[in-house]
Amino acid sequence: MAKLRDLVGSLASSSSQKFSNIEQFMEKASGMFMEFEAGQRNTQAILQDIQTQLGSVAKIVAQRAPSTLPGHTIPNP
After folding, report:
1. pLDDT tens sequence across 10-40
2. Per its UniProt entry, which superkingdom is the organism in (predicted)?
């Protein structure tokens, strides 16, 4: 009977340790996921800014007469 008690106690201890390890893993995974989401939001903001800038450049280029250079060029020294 003592062996059975020892076995059950050992199993309970092992299960408790595994549960603790799973909790630690979940906390780390949650933190990594939050960092990933923040990075993705930052990337989306950067891409939106680039899209806005390219739109501005496209408008300027579209206003220019075809096959001509800008009128105010700077000479190369």
Report:
1. 877 778 888 888 889 999 999 999 999 999 9
2. Eukaryota
Query: Tokens 């950067």 correspond to what residue?
Result: 46
CA dist., res. 12 & res. 5, Å (int): 10
Residue 28 has what pLDDT?
93
**Three-state DSSP class for 71?**
coil
CA distances from residue 59 to 22, 45, 67 in whole angstroms, order as listed: 55, 21, 16
Cα–Cα distance for residue pair 70/60, rounded to 1 Å: 11
Domain definitions of the chain by residue range? 1-42
User: Which amino acid is present at 10?
Assistant: S
